[in-house]
Amino acid sequence: MLMAGSVHDSQIYHKLFDAGEASKLFTDSAEVRAMLIVEGALAKAQGELGIIPELSAKAIHRATLEIPLDPGALGQAAAVNGVPVPGLVSAFRDAMQAPEHAQYFHWGATSQDIIDTGLMLRLRQLLGLVEGAVRETLSALAGLAEAHAELPMAGRTYGQYATPVSFGSVAAQWGQPLLSCLKELDDLKRTSLLISLSGAAGTGSIWGAQTPALRAAVAAGLGLSDPGRSWHADRGPLLKVADWLTRLATALGKIGEDVTLMVQSGVGEVRLGTAGGSSTMPQKQNPVQPSVLVAAARQSIAAQSALQGAGLARQQRDGAAWFTEWMVLPQLCLAAACAAETARRMVPGLEPQPDAMQAAFDQSQGLMQAETLSFHLSAHMPRPEAQAAVKRLCRTVIERGGHLRDAAATAYPDIDLAPVFGASGQLGDGPEQARAFAAAARAV
């Protein structure tokens, strides 16, 4: 048995990389249905503007809602023409069985008008599904941030102990990029979910002076924005949507990376609600969901790179650039949807482990308070001297063992070190950041 061409199409892997309802948007049937919706809206608008006979327009519009077309029957024509629309037009006219009306089907449009506009209809649905999942994830992160705003844990930079943070502030840092993406979404939909309707070379030559009115009418009928121009060779609208999805997947992948480190053996600062098992090691609790988030982010990033290259569309239309979009955009969309769906399920099950977090402070030998100690000593000596002194104390603790608190007390018996040591007193504005994020997340 061969592996499927995409994990999202695989009977084995599709539940692991679950994109939810978004998977249904990137099928041949969904593409054909979207193109027929566009053709129906086009005919309706043309009838109202007198471009084609109104009776024919009504017949075509009704037929696009009623006549099913077999996607498989379009394959040979697509192989010859490079696009499925000529085959769709021919099949629809035959199925309509009303040549006096069917002759006006697809009047003056080009394949890219129909394909790109149909894609925008599906991207609108995709963004709606992803938005719903992100909102649920933000709600869960807000709950974690608020409930654990003052739960101290080790901050780490370059994988090393840094200074104390709170688990609530970590949850807030996870959520802030998601919150930013969500705030951008309305503007993204308005500026990028565009109708494409400008004819063969982007000038609407068949419709002449009626082109702007026709484009506006079809846009209104489909609930998409009217760009007021051709964007056949300007892939900016698609690139903006892809960029948003990639940034979202990247933000979710960062959560996956962090959680994978938090649940590893010897750390155990977070417990997953759902973990995977091993075929041979019964003790394993594998971080499957965090790993899916990371993998989905990597796929999105890779696909985005290819898509950016496809933005170099030559002249008025570029077949190779367009074909590249068909190959990579669905995978990017499904990877981002998979990340959103996985995070929606994973985040509510995260459980911080206070004892393990405290153990990190105990194991650090007080070294997480080194920065605080150097500033505390600066009140009693010049800052450079205080920094040098703390570095010496840290080397002593690392080489000989013991605790920084005891080493400092021995070196400076006359200085009160009580304000320095103790995790909860060194959280800075972490708790306030956590609570502010929670409030913002619930307000969006």
Report what the structure shows.
With 444 residues, the protein is mainly α. It folds into three domains: 18-109 and 206-230, Fumarase/aspartase (N-terminal domain) (Fumarase C, Chain B, domain 1), CATH 1.10.275; 114-194 and 238-356 and 425-444, Fumarase/aspartase (Central domain) (Fumarase C, Chain A, domain 2, Up-down Bundle), CATH 1.20.200.10; 367-420, no CATH class. It has 16 helices and four strands. The strands form two sheets. Strands 1-2 form a two-stranded antiparallel ribbon. A hairpin with a 2-residue loop joins strand 1 (152-157) and strand 2. Helix 6 packs antiparallel against helix 7 (167-192). It starts with 27 loop residues before the first helix and ends with a helix. 45% of the residues are buried. Mean pLDDT is 89; it is low at 277-284. Belongs to the class-II fumarase/aspartase family. It comes from Pseudooceanicola batsensis (strain ATCC BAA-863 / DSM 15984 / KCTC 12145 / HTCC2597). GO terms for molecular function: isomerase activity; lyase activity.
